[in-house]
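Problem 3 from the worked examples.
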Amino acid sequence: MPAVSHATNGHRVAPHLPAAPRAIATAAAVGALAAMLVVALWSLMATLAGGQAAAMPLDRAAVTGALQGVAFALILPRRKDHRAAEWAAAAIGLAVFLGLSGLRPFGLGIVESWFWALPGAAVVAWATAAMTRAAFAGLSLADFRRLQFETVLVRVVRGFGIAFFTVMVAFPFYVMVVSSLKPQGLLMADPLDLSIDVFQPLGDLFSAYVEVFTNFNFGRYILVSTFVSVTTVIVTLLLAIPGAYAVARLRFPGRVWMSQSILLVYMFPAIVLVIPLYSVFSLMGLRDSLFGLLIVYPATTLPVALYMLQGYFRGLPHELEEAGLIDGASRIGVILRITLPLSLPALASVALYVFMIAWNEFLFAFMFLDNPAIFTLSRGIVSLDTSEVPRQYLMAGSVIVTVPVMAIFLYFERFLVTGLTAGSVKG
């Protein structure tokens, strides 16, 4: 029988339509997949990072997740509150998962392994409910048609893709960090042990970092890399801004050809260019000097900077610059006072991109630099890659190279996205 609305205090209240069978089945499938994903990740973390012999109960995870999905689909139409339905499904999932595992989730006793057992079960229950809620956010479970099903499918595929690539990127970095914090004896005894003893003295924990700064001159390498990278950014922007503005705004013979052929230099691999450059720089006395790098780096980053900036300049309204020219400003004044202030997102994205290229560049630094006093960070790491140097020192140097540029990228990432998409849509 159809649901009938009823009156409360003179107001008609919309009926609570139950979830469609297709919505319930979809929620069960989403919950099962989410639970298996979380269980697999937590089991790997407990085994690798925690040193626990954790099992991977995917069958119990699938049952738990399916029941959570069904509970979410049944509770949501009555409560009309996604958060309440999520927490209710999480509570049900926690009870079911603990019950199916005999109070030994992941094969770990709650008392013997309190840090990984019970918190892991709670994480599985909550994360499964949260991912189920995210998959059905804004959708009506009562009127669950093909469009709603496809929306859920796209969200699930996207979420699993993000989780997969996040693990693929984060796991090598985690291994690098763990290896830098462990003594050589433990690394040699069990290379697959990725746990960290965080309760040891800080001096012992970070001894590899102290060593690379005191005995391997990494403090100077950081200063050299910073100088080279910042100088490369400045030189590149000084050349790219007028060049990109000319291509975007001025009319001259060959403008279209130049605009379309800016990136042709990237058709040639760097290894093809490094040998003739090595010969020329050796004859000119530029090898084994930072000045040589400051010639090569802007030359390799200038094409992409020109390409990005000209697209952004073309997207700026002509009327603003014409108004400045009518008011008596020169072309340079218009660029400095109107165009550049409006182009700050693009300038920031180009600066970030160029900085990352110069900071991480290895081939030219390896070929041109022989004096340890002027090594960049990427060149200095090679000096640690020998059989005489313990592996944790190499990993500590790799972390030192990675962390600064990662922090800068995460902070300025919004500018990078804005700059890369600038000029892609006209109007």
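Problem 4, a separate protein:
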Amino acid sequence: MKKYLAAVAILSIALSASGQAFSQPESGAEDLSKPAGVEPPMLGIHWARGFEPNFLAKHAQKGPAGVHGRKTSVNMLWHNGEILTTAVIESIFWGTSWGTYSGDKISGLDLWYDGFGGSNYAKTSDEYTGTNGQVGAGTTHLGHVIDASGASGGTFTGPILAEVCKMITSPDPNGYYPVYTDLPRGNAGYCAWHSYGTCNGTPVQFAFFWKLDGDPGCDPKSTVSGESQGLAALANVSGHELSEARTDPTSDGWYDSAGQENGDKCAWTFNIPSVTFSNGSQWKIQGEWSNAAYTAGTGYSNSAGQKGCLDGH
């Protein structure tokens, strides 16, 4: 869920109840080259299954008048900013256990990002434009790096941006750097989020992910063979965050009147058992919101019954 919510009070209460402090001010990106940088906003929060801090704002969209007679928009609106026309992706695996890890999550996520570029799934976001052009399905995957030091949790965005700046010594202006930690979610109400900032003056996109092994709140319940549950869970939330970073990279791109980005609007809804990526890999993955599909009535329904989700299958 995007941080600019119509029900800010509800969000604050919900996060307090989950043991997480809502620490993101209405502010710009942090520049770590400055000694007193401001922590960047937490965007596109992928809430755990059944955790709905924006329940009232979300369900207000069902009626044409919205809350207190204010009109709302089911479709996402452009907020006069930029999008990502392309993305250069390099994953960071942060935590002491990654140094000796022998499971399938690192290689599996490499396969996921290799196959995302040019896939029909990636193309579900291609309709969105910004001041700098149009979202494109072409992405470049540079692989991954491992930092086996102790990881920070996802309650604050600043430490995650600092990790990106530490590990990515030559960031790309179109860079997207997902940080996968080995920390379990615990009582946090969310599985992942994305944000933006700068590393020595270069703008970057980044995202945070908890360890989701054995976590029913973040499990898509995939039936695809040959992948662990932890990998399947990370693959699903990775699609959510990357799609949002491409369409709303700096919080002035595309989101609806309740503050929901394209991944938020289709969270925890699946059209078919698996989607095939451009490299032939298969994943159980949520769809992404398409204004065009909703307008034409060709999408599948999200959890609010709005037919605007596409998965590119």
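Solution to problem 4. Residues 1-36, 55-70 have pLDDT under 50 and may be disordered. The helical segments are 8-17, 55-60, 105-116, 158-167, 229-247, 291-296.
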